[in-house]
Structure to design on (67 residues):
């Protein structure tokens, strides 16, 4: 699973490995609420369940080059 930093926007791995089906289990809601993670640039933020990403998105530079 990955996150996008709320401060600088960089996408980074969380080192948490879960199957999407397990992640979406309602009984685990509290586990992912208010968790803190630090991005590679050193920004620490709290994240909610909706903030976690399963697929790595393309870097912004690739998206611009295709336009």
């Amino acid at each position: 699973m990955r996150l996008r930093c709320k401060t600088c926007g960089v996408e980074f791995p969380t080192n948490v490995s879960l199957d999407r089906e397990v992640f979406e289990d309602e009984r685990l809601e509290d586990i992912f609420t208010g968790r803190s993670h630090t991005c590679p640039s050193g920004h620490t933020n709290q994240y909610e369940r909706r903030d976690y990403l399963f697929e790595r998105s393309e870097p912004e530079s690739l998206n611009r080059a295709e336009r």
Notes: The chain has one domain: 2-55. The two ends are 28 Å apart (CA to CA).
